[in-house]
Amino acid sequence: MLKLVRAPNLLIAQHWMNILATAGVPCELHNRYLSGAMGEIPAEQCAPEIWLTDERDEKLARRLIDEATQGPPAGAPSWRCAQCGETLEAQFTVCWNCGRDRDVRDLLDE
């Protein structure tokens, strides 16, 4: 297992977990309930953490979380829908023409 990131709060951590789960990246949320111990133990040790089950998913997981927090980088290339062939801009995650989701594994090729 690999600690991927420490989230600022439980809401953000769960959002990132949902993004990773949708992409098929297995992970676990640690320190979910430690906020109640804040003050008894240092605050930075109470923050929720996302841990990857498979270390090979690190590059994709970091990319997904970066895009979730900052959006696609300026000048990111367009992508082509595998189902209908429509070309879409980088910020779109679903094809407007046929409704197919973008395959997140394509992000690794960019």
UniProtKB/TrEMBL annotation:
Pfam families reported in the protein's UniProt record: DUF2007
Domain of life: Bacteria
Annotated ranges, domain DUF2007: 1-68
InterPro entries linked to this entry: DUF2007
Protein's recorded name: DUF2007 domain-containing protein
Organism: Paraburkholderia acidisoli
